[in-house]
Design goal:
homodimer, MgtE N-terminal fold, CBS-domain, Tetracycline Repressor, domain 2
Chain lengths: 453, 453
């Protein structure tokens, strides 16, 4: 709940004020609005000219905070309202290094270079440039260079002065990191502790030398897991020589976690790009089509498998009745097994070792569930008087496909993970399609054996 | 990366030291270990007697921090090592109110009452009791009562004193909330600002009256979304009279978001309880069986649908060849549409209104993808010389089922949401099964029409 509720009426009035260039009334409204809310209005309601005008009314820091929050495509469009010089002086000079690096990564390389070159504060532009070199999804790419660094022999008074100097423009300051003369990370001290300590005490007397940290090359998943496990508001990042080079804050991890969860969810749903229901029809179609084509190819494959047994099918048309059951169950079990593996791998609760034990367990689960389902099916057949041989075929095939689907669903994510491919690929349409083929093949083989007797 | 790496060898030595009751060597190790790491060792490696002994070596606050981090079942087992009095004095007296309420909610009601009654600090026990009354998944149930409250007319000096008094045992102190004489929330001031202000200034001079907050009855989703959107490290919670009653911190939201993402993911995968791959075979089976039985019933339903067309099938056995294709495509499209709705509803990017527009869009996406897939299929048929009438049947049915699956996949989550049922129920096996039935029915109806011509 923020101070101004953004209703349709509010938006209409707001746009009217913009069209009238009514600064006197706009200024107090803009002051009350949070950057995130202004960004949403930019995203959904304003054209470029209106957005540039509103931005011109905002003070430097708020202007930057708004821009950071814009949707990526809106951000690119908004930047077209400015020259490279203006982008440097109005936006990138005031931006936290990690935000700046994120945005520059998505701009044309030429424009990025121009902007970087035109930032007056050379240390700031060097900081941003140094972040650009880290591979995606590493701590180095997630971290910001801005933070409070203090030295062991400093007094609390000097820390406060330093925080005043370093932190005036820095939000989310909760912790100061302690370094030695070689800039190596040796500990941390909370802002609370500094606030409560006498001014004459030294950092050495009040700091904690037990400091959780990660390296620049640590993966994003691990950074998120560490910050979450230890309930840290920020995680210091060191380079290969243990020198403090940056920090990742909780808000970056919140964003990262949501992105990752959405990616996995979409993968499981058979949607290949990051889309939202508000995206265009074209984008939505394109994100789904690849998976549908995989399904189509799988379906054609299935028709070839069944075609190979056309003669058997002609003699026992009833076999066709239970094809859907076999397929559906194989698909369901495969998705269950694979998604539990994918989650386990994502949470680091499974290692690639101990595969045999995992497999054994999944097979046991499959056996248990398969037996229950097969017995239920036999009971159904007995009660409703279906052909006994057909029902025996279906039950045996059901048990077999449940076991095999559990096996495939467990193995494929583990294999992908071992080969450093995102195991989430193995969930959704991919696993369903391969289990359909396997299941139908098995079904007819078993049918052949039982019905041919 | 924490100070001590927990390897197999470390665990072996550690347990040996416990068995020898070697306090002299254990103490420095325990001091270096984080509560989260000790909790993991309790979870996986120690028996009750060993755990109680190790706990007896920890100082009060760390003992509590370890217990909070234990797995729920381990926590319950661990508590059996203590009497109700000991639980009160050793653990619950030092526990943050929200952690205490969470744990008490999962203990037998009798034991909970005894523990609450035996807490010496009556204000603390009242705080905990007041949290127990909030419905699950509301801000009230997520919040903690502990926080820093300051008044408008206080000086910075008085704030510091108050923080010293209130916050000595309180971790995660980053912000002080400002209240008026009626205890109503009127603003906030960051610890950084207090640290940097002169001691003689008043809160009124340095505070920010623009304070984002939520009500006790706000849903957990909204709390998480607000904290995330505004990058807040903690979100103050007010009651119906705007009185400040608690705060939700970022670490609670991190846990909440991960739980929700896992729940949705498991729902989509057809797993009904929160299980991990490390759980027992029995638990894993039980979590999956309900969905498999739904699949089984769906499969039997499919067999009845197909059975109704047995004569047609006998005359055109080739129709059976493409049943899997129709089913797989209906299933894939249904899951795609439903999961995009479920994500949209979870992120609040869709409202239940504007349903017609959403439907129109999904149908357009379906039409586009359906046309592409049907044309691909016709081309395949033409190239490989399949029966033209069969391929026409399959293509028309494919287009129809893609459209209908998109419709069903969009409508059901919206309907469930409107009736306050978790829309995630509509993803996974549920939607696949109903689309299988619909798809097969349509397929044979269309086959009848085209082949009967």
């Amino acid at each position: 709940m923020s101070a101004i509720e953004i209703t349709k009426e509010f938006i209409e009035e707001f746009i009217q004020l913009i069209e009238q260039r009514n600064e006197a009334e706009l200024n107090p409204i803009l002051e009350k609005l949070y950057p995130q809310d202004i960004a949403e209005i930019f995203d959904d309601e304003l054209n470029l000219e209106q957005a540039v005008y509103v931005a011109s009314l905002l003070e430097s820091q708020k202007k930057v905070d708004v821009v950071i929050e814009l949707e990526p495509d809106v951000k690119l469009k908004f930047f077209q309202g400015y020259s490279a010089e203006e982008l440097s002086s109005l936006f990138f000079s005031y931006m936290k290094s990690d935000d700046a690096a994120d945005i520059l990564n998505n701009l044309p390389a030429d424009l990025s270079k121009q902007i970087l070159r035109k930032i007056d504060d050379k240390e700031h532009s060097r900081n941003i440039a140094s972040l650009l070199k880290f591979p995606e999804n590493t701590a180095g790419a997630l971290m910001a260079k801005e933070m409070i660094k203090v030295k062991l022999n400093w007094t609390v008074k000097r820390c406060t002065d330093e925080i005043r100097r370093q932190a005036e423009s820095l939000s989310n300051v909760f912790t100061a990191y302690v370094v030695n003369d070689y800039d190596e990370l040796v500990g941390w001290v909370s802002l609370k502790r500094i606030l409560l300590a006498a001014e004459s005490r030294t950092v050495e007397e009040i700091y904690d030398d037990n400091v959780i940290h990660e390296n620049t090359y640590t993966s994003g998943e691990e950074v998120a897991a560490t910050l979450k496990k230890y309930d840290l508001v920020a995680l210091p990042i060191v380079d290969a020589f243990n020198r403090l080079v940056g920090r990742v804050t909780f808000d970056d991890v919140l964003d990262y976690m949501q992105d990752e969860a959405e990616k996995d969810y979409q993968m499981l749903s058979g949607i290949s790009e990051d889309v939202e229901s508000s995206d265009s029809v074209w984008l939505l179609s394109r994100a789904r089509l690849p998976w549908l084509v995989i399904g189509l190819i799988g379906g054609i494959g299935s028709s070839l498998v069944i075609g190979g047994f056309e003669e058997e099918l002609r003699q026992n048309v009833q076999l066709a009745l239970f094809m859907p059951l076999i397929m559906a169950m194989g698909g369901n079990v495969g998705v269950q097994s694979s998604s539990i593996m994918v989650q386990g791998l994502a949470n680091n609760t499974i290692s690639s070792t101990g595969v045999v034990a995992k497999l054994g367990k999944e097979l046991l689960v499959g056996l248990l569930n398969g037996l229950v389902c097969s017995l239920l099916l036999l009971a159904y057949g007995a009660i409703f008087g279906n052909s006994q041989k057909i029902m025996l075929t279906v039950s045996v095939a059901l048990l077999a496909i449940i076991l095999i689907a559990a096996l495939v669903g467990t193995l494929i994510p583990l294999l992908l993970d071992r080969f450093k491919i995102d195991p989430a690929l193995a969930t959704g349409p991919f696993i369903t399609t391969s289990n359909d083929l396997l299941g139908l093949f098995l079904y007819f083989i078993i049918g052949n054996l039982i019905l041919g007797m």
